[in-house]
Amino acid sequence: MAEVKLTAELRTEFGKGAARRIRRADKVPAVLYGHGSDPQHITLPGHATLMALREHNALLSIEVDGKSQLALPKQIQRDPIKGFIEHVDLVMVRRGEKVTVDVTLHSEGETAPDTVAMWDRNDVAIEAEATNIPEGITISVEGLDVGAQIHASDLELPEGSTLAVDPDTLIVSVSAARSAAEEEEEAAAAEGEETEGEGEGEESGEDSESDDSES
């Protein structure tokens, strides 16, 4: 994965008010830490940071106070409504250093007719060099039939990467696809249970009103 260079500024103001002022200036408050060094509180350019962090496990080259430091995003806080970045925690890494990260899994191909692939998880933890983290791992489900399973040990990992989870961890299993009639029957049964529940609630409410009037 290519490095993304970002120029940062050291931050001297703290607190909610300072953070709001930073964001109004189209910048992002962040903290850079790791390797036993004191945390560095910095600000990053807003738009450039937003674009860089669209990539999972983005490798960042942070230039601050005339020095360059490689870092990986550890935690990203986003506004739940507008989606802009509110704060970023960055962990320092070195070239050649191995780190444990969650890598997104992608599928290719189609399972056998009348079957469906059930994903138990959408990512997997691996150990890889900080400067050679794969953008994702592709899993082929082409032609898999009912009962087929793919475990973590079946994944084709990039060279230099190793699993950081139990090899027996289930990733994908293949089941028979439900027919339209089965789906309709299940939906009707669920609707019947909801209707029955509402009726019970109404009856209990009538009893309650009766009790109140007696008292």
Automatic annotation (TrEMBL):
Protein name, entry field: Large ribosomal subunit protein bL25
Keyword rRNA-binding tagged: yes
Family: Belongs to the bacterial ribosomal protein bL25 family. CTC subfamily.
Highest rank taxon of the organism: Bacteria
Annotated InterPro entries: Rbsml_bL25/Gln-tRNA_synth_N, Ribosomal_bL25/Gln-tRNA_synth, Ribosomal_bL25_b-dom, Ribosomal_bL25_C, Ribosomal_bL25_long, Ribosomal_L25_dom, Ribosomal_uL5_bac-type
A Gene Ontology BP annotation from the UniProt entry: translation
Entry's Gene Ontology molecular function annotations: 5S rRNA binding; structural constituent of ribosome
Keyword Membrane found: no
Taxonomic lineage from the root: Bacteria, Bacillati, Actinomycetota, Actinomycetes, Propionibacteriales
UniProt feature, compositional bias: Acidic residues: 182-215
UniProt function note: This is one of the proteins that binds to the 5S RNA in the ribosome where it forms part of the central protuberance.
All residue ranges annotated as the Large ribosomal subunit protein bL25 L25 domain in the record: 6-90
Disordered, as annotated region: 175-215
Organism: Microlunatus soli
Subunit structure: Part of the 50S ribosomal subunit; part of the 5S rRNA/L5/L18/L25 subcomplex. Contacts the 5S rRNA. Binds to the 5S rRNA independently of L5 and L18.
Stretches assigned to the Large ribosomal subunit protein bL25 beta domain: 98-178
Gene3D superfamilies (UniProt xref): Ribosomal protein L25, beta domain, Ribosomal Protein L25, Chain P
Keywords on record: Ribonucleoprotein, Ribosomal protein, RNA-binding, rRNA-binding
SUPFAM superfamilies noted in UniProt: Ribosomal protein L25-like
Stretches that traverse the bilayer: none
HAMAP family linked: Ribosomal_bL25_CTC (MF_01334)
GO cellular component, one term: cytosolic large ribosomal subunit
